[in-house]
Amino acid sequence: MRASIAAESAGIPSVSIICDGFAGQARATARGFGFDGLPLAVTVGHVDTQSPEEMTANFVGSTVDQIIEGLIGDRPVSNPSNPEPAALEIVATGTIDQVNEHFLEMGWSDGNSIIPPTIDRVERFLEGSGHDPWKTLGIAPSSGRDFTIWSIAVNAVMAGCRPEHLPILIALAEILADPTYGSEHSGNTTGADALIILDGPNSKALGFNSGPGAQREGTHANTSVGRWLRLYLRNVLGFTADEHDKATFGNPARPVLAEDHQYLREITWPSIAEQLGFHWSDDVVTMARMNSGALIGSVVGSTPEAILPYLGNGLARVSAWDLTHVHGLGTDQYQPLLVLSPILARTFAKAGWRLPDVQEALFGHARITAQAFERFIGDWTNLSAGRPKLTDLVADGALPPVFAESSDPDRLVPIVTRPERLLIAVAGDPNRANAYAFSNDGPHGWWTAKRIDHTPASDLVCNIGGDCG
Q1: Taking residues 221-246, what's their average pLDDT?
Q2: In sequence order, what are the residues at sequence separation of 6 or more whose Cβ sits closer than 8 angstroms to the Cβ of residue 184?
Q3: Structural domain contains residue 202
Q4: What is the distance between the alpha carbons of residues 96 and 109, in angstroms, rounded to a whole number?
Q5: Is there a contact between 342 and 260 (Cβ–Cβ < 8 Å)?
Q6: Using CA atoms, how far apart are residues 156 and 224, in angstroms rounded to an integer?
Q7: What is the DSSP string of 334-388?
Q8: From CA 194, how far away is CA 227, in angstroms rounded?
């Protein structure tokens, strides 16, 4: 669609060829960029389940006519009027039950009850923050809607967030607006969903739980901020089934994962934020999209050497199709996450291991056979042309030499290209020897972090006093 939008902007007629079932997403994307009604040509069925002969027959028999009609028919009109309600428009009145029912019918809630975002409630949420409600932080690439302080606050009220969470929500909106993160991929068919990680000295004072049940619903801050993200993706970025969300299954909304800042300072290990370049004294929110996760339960062992094989196995088990981000969908773009409970991190720290030591050791343990790797990136996907062999990819310079130390198909190869690609967090019950491994979706939600600024903004002072620039 974006190629068609670029062509139409230059006055060149286009037709977008899309798979069956993606017409709604294509229309929403075009509308978001100001080109309502871009011509589409839909292929018959799913391309991955058809033989070349079936695909050719379907394309010639159906899709070609749509392409011709799209090229010779009327051209779309750019920048149509927006039928959506305005920011201050009253969209529902009545009892709280009636308001919730209306929001459900309109698709503005996540299916659970919301707190009605009345103008009074939203204004009270922003009161004292100093932020101009109409300040724009960016534009949603999926919908063309603005990321405004007002829209952040509206969805925050709906989710039940508290005013002190606003700086965190602003930082999350900045991540969504950052091209590095790639928020436009948030509804892809594999159904990866965002994981929010909070680091910094103020997380506990803000009410975030980093201990037992670190990702369980029930702690207000973790749960409400996680819910805000799902509502914002839905209401501002357009990730609903009617617009952009094409997830085959999807994942449940995740509460915020807050790292155990105090314990990390005790063992002088870097947090996720520090691994991504921030200082230990910064409050930072980090986000990436995760395809799946696996519990590594009841890890037994009193030494690093005893527990490493189990942890490495967990990372390897959770990695499958995701390996196309090592090669196929991209190169060197797979960065899984291992969350250690404090007692497991202590096992390494007591033995004098630093975090890079753990990453290096896991790089050697989190491995699969070369033939299994080749199946994931070639035989079992259409994302790597020619069913490549790892030895050939190394010879071409596409992968590092560690992937071709021999030609034995049963040799073990790593799941990432280098040790530092294995991110490690510390959270959870300090008295339980468990870990959790997440596989991430590469550039479909790349690891992106923003510093949280708790200081009141001066926007409104500038607006009242004149030009501050």
Answers
A1: 92
A2: 141, 142, 244
A3: no
A4: 14
A5: yes
A6: 8
A7: ---EEEEPHHHHHHHHHTT--HHHHHHHHHHHSEEEHHHHHIIIIIT-SSSTT--
A8: 11
Q: Output the six-digit token pair for 145.
A: 């809607």
Map residue 240 onto helix, strand or coil.
coil
Q: Which of 176, 143, 155 is nearest to 225 (CA)?
A: 155
Confirm whether 39 is domain-assigned: yes
Q: Whole domain around residue 67: which residue ranges?
A: 2-78
What tens digit of pLDDT does each residue of 73-97 get?
776 655 544 567 888 888 899 999 9
Residue with the two structure tokens 């501002």: 236
Q: Which two tokens stand for residue 288?
A: 């990436």
Question: What is the C-alpha separation between 237 and 231, in angstroms, rounded?
Answer: 9
Query: 185 and 238 in contact (C-beta within 8 Å)?
Result: no
Report pLDDT for 464.
44
Residue where the block lists tokens 């339980």: 432
Q: Residue 190: how many CB atoms within 10 A of its CB?
A: 18
Q: Quick check: 109 pLDDT over 90?
A: yes
Q: Do β-strands 193-199 and 257-258 pair in parallel, antiparallel, or remain unpaired?
A: parallel
Nearest Cα residue to 331 out of 288, 384, 410 = 384
Q: How far apart are CA 208 and CA 206, in angstroms?
A: 6
> Residue 439: which H helix or E strand, with range?
strand 435-440
pTM: 0.88
Q: Which residues fall within 8 angstroms of residue 307, CB to CB, at 6 or more apart? A: 299, 300, 301, 344, 347
Q: Quick check: 234 and 241 in contact, CB under 8 A?
A: no
Distance, CA of 222 to CA of 212 (rounded, Å): 13
Helices 149-159 and 166-177: crossing angle, nearest 10°?
120
User: For residue range 184-204, what is the model confidence (pLDDT) as tens digits?
Assistant: 889 888 889 999 999 999 999
Q: What is the b/e burial string over 258-286, where b = at least 16 CB atoms within 10 angstroms of the residue's CB?
A: bbbbebbeebebbbbbbbbebebebbbbb
Q: Is the dihedral of CA 210, 213, 218, 222 positive or negative?
A: positive
CA 155/CA 231 separation, integer angstroms: 6
Check residue 443 and give left, alpha or beta (phi > 0: left; psi -120 to 50: alpha).
alpha
Q: Are 77 and 61 in contact (CB under 8 A)?
A: no
Contact 276, 376 (CB under 8 A): no
Counted domains in the chain = 1
Mean pLDDT, all residues of the chain: 90
